[in-house]
Design goal:
mainly alpha; Four Helix Bundle (Hemerythrin (Met), subunit A)
Length: 197
């Protein structure tokens, strides 16, 4: 019973995280409807999405202790140490992108503001470093928990983060206009773009 309740909460929290975050990255579009209050509203959406994301992390951990009774192995066929190494190989660069992207975005990571300028730093290499890192941290965590089911479940985050990034880009084009369009042509989406010599 605990396993199914945990899984249901995981599904709901995953959906809410994606839904709320997508709403949080559209302050410019919302401001055209409701004015300046849109920026505070989007900040609230962002903060609530962080809460629902934290709930999903807890669900992952609870799943380790209370897995669903499915015809999927509870653990990988290799030693747990191998799963930990795979998890760390995923998590270390993912956390670097997440932390570096958050640092270079500054307070805009949590608080969208109309006066905020376009970012520099790692954002000159890739347009969505935080999303690129965060989208695969779920996979890394699932390997650390040695759970084939959670590894499979973690794949759901890839399209969710893709949709988040696309929604954000539409809003950034509204916000920054041609400057952002030029930036999109120059800088890679989730991966650095190779420049031709």
């Amino acid at each position: 019973m605990i396993a199914w309740i945990n899984f249901l909460i995981l599904l709901i929290a995953t959906f809410l995280t994606g839904f709320l975050y997508i709403k949080s990255v559209q302050p410019m579009a919302l401001s055209q409807k409701i004015g300046d209050a849109a920026w505070r509203k989007c900040e609230r959406y962002r903060r609530i999405s962080i809460i629902t994301m934290t709930i999903t992390v807890i669900n992952y951990i609870v799943y380790y202790f209370y897995p669903l009774p499915l015809p999927i192995p509870l653990a990988f066929f290799w030693p747990w140490a191998v799963a930990i190494v795979i998890g760390l190989v995923i998590l270390i660069p993912a956390m670097y992108l997440l932390i570096r992207g958050s640092r270079d975005a500054g307070e805009e990571t949590l608080k969208p503001r109309p006066e905020h300028a376009m970012y520099g730093g790692i954002y000159e290499k890739m347009r969505h470093p935080q999303a690129a890192g965060e989208s695969v941290t779920w996979l890394g965590g699932a390997f650390l928990l040695n759970s084939p089911f959670l590894v499979l479940y973690s794949l759901i985050w890839l399209p969710i983060y893709y949709l988040m990034c696309r929604a954000e880009e539409k809003d950034l084009v509204l916000r920054f206009g041609q400057d952002y369009v030029n930036y999109m042509q120059r800088v890679g989406f989730l991966w650095p773009r190779r420049h031709k010599a």
